[in-house]
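Comment thread on ticket #2218

A.B. wrote:
> Attaching the input chain for the structure job we discussed in standup.
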Amino acid sequence: MVGSDAIIEDFFIPLIAIAIAELGDKTQISILLLSSKTKKHLHLLIGVIIGFIIVDGIAVLAGSWITTVVPINILKIISGVVFIFFGLLMLFKKEKDEEKKTYDKNIFMAGFLLIMLTEWGDKTQIAAALFSTNYNPIIVLIGTILALSLLSIIAIYFGKFISERINEKLITKVGGIAFIILGIFFFI
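C.D. wrote:
> Ran it. Output below, let me know if you need it in another format.
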């Protein structure tokens, strides 16, 4: 019985802590914005989850090693530049119907790259690494990925909901501005 209690603790503590920490985070806002620009929500979700598995899997396996190899301030600068670039792209790119189809084709990669480029050194990645030093790393990873997946599903659902009710040009402008603001916060 003690073994099952330990497994439950190893699973639920990271799941709850990661879910609370990530709720309303820049990543979830970004996923929401991406989901409002596509009809291929499952592709986006799969790309995001694979990105989380890699980023948080490495964190769990290596502890906080990545932040000792690449300074956190460099990771933040890269993330900030990526967000600002995508924000400017959203604001100034003229979207044609054919370009929208191309965006839909690449939504898996957009979700995957969003996570791969912005989650290194994030508080949830560091938390997963720290949890793995005290709990069973595999169970920690499962709890972490489940928390991030559930929040991503909610973000995608709300993005879809918003895109069905609000003008696409307005969503694009608001999304572009939000990405730029999120990017600026990386420099603060």
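A.B. wrote:
> Thanks. Noting for the ticket: The radius of gyration is 17 Å.
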